[in-house]
Design a protein that fits this description.
This protein is of the alpha/beta class. It has 3 domains: 117 residues, 3-Layer(bba) Sandwich (Glucose Oxidase, domain 1), CATH 3.50.30.10; 100 residues, PtsI, HPr-binding domain (Enzyme I, Chain A, domain 2), CATH 1.10.274; 263 residues, TIM Barrel (Alpha-Beta Barrel). The protein is built from 21 helices and 16 strands. α18 links the parallel β15 and β16. It starts with 6 loop residues before the first strand and ends with a helix.
Length: 555
């Protein structure tokens, strides 16, 4: 337990902002008793489990109704709750004499162990399964559902990690910041906190020691958490946190000397599109189309896809929309593709590589995108994920153009693609760097494994070196190179990226205004000097310090 003495914790700051509030822990799940008397009628108990899992699926589907990236993930979790294998496994334990609720624990925990052993994306799905287990058990035992607490005022939510169902309720809760023991800079919690505009620190192992009501100052920029701050420090931080930022710039992003840097938004669903379209952004730099179909067990038809894309495109009349084709596999499985199980899915069959096994799925999507563009007149740009070679880039470009799509690009996420960027760019109209996966592959660090989260710091000089190489290659060929990874949401890092010749930056919508203000205060030469300072550093901390020192000299 934390004493009342002031102390400092640290983790990974993944969503900027300063918050002063007491903490409240996620409501713990109920536990089951293996010694509880089993039901008299096994068939009746199996039916109770069936109804509980069905109700969990309905709860998750209802929570997904608000849309957004969290909504898409919830739809996938709802499909997991309806998997007949879960009911079958629980029924087997009931048949062996186990208590009903404990049978659910045994069944789902067995699946969780299997997923942890597989690692990678499959291990990341354990959180979703545990949430399904906890909800079903609460229903069977008739106790309160685990999840977001309601302490009666603003609070910092503390948890080991957050499930998609938890994050879906954050927007309507009194939570003003997130603090988790697990997670890294590119985890789902990090991405969702940015999309909600909530300050967040993840990967803070010491957070497990915090008890409800403990006052903290959480800084989502530095990743620090001050516990039991002094009254003077608390007063100072409250004044700082309550100061409303007065954004000085509007419209297109540009540096102080007029160099344009397009500021775009990342979206995943129609709900995301509606919210982003109302903001002061220049368009969409990343439309994650797979989030529309995460819960589908049968392939969506061309007409269904056309309708979905049309709904999104209509929000951005007159503004460009960059669409990423289905990035299935690894941490985003699409059941209807029926991809094979893999021991190490992150470098396996994912992204564009799925077309090697399911070429019709990509062809159908390209046809639907072309039809939606025809219906809406959208300024459409299409790019493929997980491209590794010039031949892959050329093949995708030819295929997309054969479907009537004029502006075609690829994502740079694989080190090989960054190292041979010039050869790849010759075949396409633009490239966009995905820093989340690029960092994962450059640093050989699984983005779902919190134990190596420090290696995924997007200030890693090795990652920035490859970004610089792509920027130079694109500039030499006179073609645009943008960045749509999480790095773009950090205002200081955004200036470095501008200095690395990124022509556009795409990020969560709440981050756009702050990044635009930052760029407007700096000339392109200053951005380039900051970029050089970051590249000369030997580690992320040195890179930040060097850039902060450089920018202080410009003031």
């Amino acid at each position: 337990m934390i004493t009342t003495a002031a102390m400092l914790m640290s983790g990974h700051g993944v969503s900027q902002g300063l918050v002063c509030a007491p903490v409240a822990r996620l409501t713990p799940p109920a536990t089951t008793d293996p010694e509880e008397a089993p039901g008299d009628n096994p068939a009746h108990e199996v039916q109770r489990v069936r109804e509980a899992l069905a109700q969990v699926a309905r709860q998750l589907t209802a929570a997904a109704a608000d849309g957004g990236v969290a909504g898409a993930i919830l739809q996938a979790a709802a499909a997991m709750a309806q998997d007949p294998a879960l009911l079958q496994a629980a029924a087997g334990h009931i048949g062996q004499g186990s208590p009903t609720a404990h049978s659910v624990t045994l069944a789902i925990d067995a699946y969780c162990r299997q997923l942890r052993e597989l690692g990678g994306y499959m291990a990341d799905r354990v959180t979703d399964l545990e949430d399904i287990r906890n909800r079903a058990i609460a229903l069977l035992l008739d106790v309160p559902l685990p999840g977001i607490p309601q302490p009666g005022g603003p609070f910092v939510l503390v948890a080991h990690d957050l499930s998609p169902a938890d994050t879906a309720h954050l927007a309507t809760s009194d939570a003003v910041a997130l603090l988790t023991e697990a997670g890294g800079p590119t985890s789902h919690t990090a991405i969702l906190s940015r999309s909600l505009g909530l300050p967040a620190v993840v990967g803070c192992h010491e957070a497990a020691r915090l008890t409800d009501g403990t006052p903290v100052i959480l800084d989502g920029r530095t990743g620090t958490v001050e516990v039991h701050p002094t009254p003077q420090r608390l007063h100072q931080a409250r004044q700082q946190s309550q100061a409303t930022p007065q954004h000085q710039t509007f419209g297109p992003g540009r540096t102080a000397d007029g160099h344009g840097i397009a500021l775009l938004t990342n979206i995943g669903t129609a709900a995301d599109a509606a919210r982003a379209a109302a903001a002061d952004t220049e368009g969409v730099g990343l439309f994650r189309t797979e989030f529309l179909f995460l819960n589908r067990r049968e392939a969506p038809t061309a007409d269904e896809q056309t309708e979905a894309y049309t709904q999104v495109f209509r929000n951005f009349a007159g503004r460009p929309i960059t669409v990423r084709t289905l990035d299935a596999g690894s941490d985003k499985p699409l059941p209807f593709l029926r991809l094979p199980d893999e021991e190490n899915p992150a470098p396996g069959i994912r992204g564009l590589r799925t077309a090697r096994l399911q070429p019709d799925a990509l062809a159908t999507q390209l046809s639907a995108l072309a039809a939606a563009q025809h219906h809406t007149g959208a300024q459409l740009k299409v790019m493929a994920p997980m491209v590794s070679t010039p031949n892959e880039a050329a093949h995708f470009a030819d295929l997309a153009r054969s479907h009537g799509l004029d502006t075609v690009g690829v994502m740079i996420e694989v080190p090989a693609a960054a190292l041979r960027a010039g050869d790849i760019i010759r075949h396409v109209d633009f490239v966009s760097i995905g820093t989340n996966d690029l960092a994962q592959y450059v640093m050989a660090a699984d983005r779902t494994h919190h134990a190596v989260a420090d290696l995924l710091d997007l200030w890693q000089p090795a990652v920035l070196s490859l970004v610089a190489q792509v920027g130079r290659a694109a500039a030499d060929l006179g073609r645009p190179a943008g960045l749509c990874g999480e790095a773009a949401a950090d205002p200081l890092l955004a200036a470095v990226l501008a200095g690395l010749q990124m022509s556009s930056l795409s990020m969560a919508t709440p981050a756009v205004a702050t990044v635009r203000d930052q760029l407007a205060r700096l000339t392109m030469q200053q951005c380039q000097e900051m970029a050089s300072a970051a590249l000369d550093a030997s580690d992320p901390d040195q890179a930040r310090t060097a850039v902060q020192k450089a920018i202080s000299q410009f003031s």
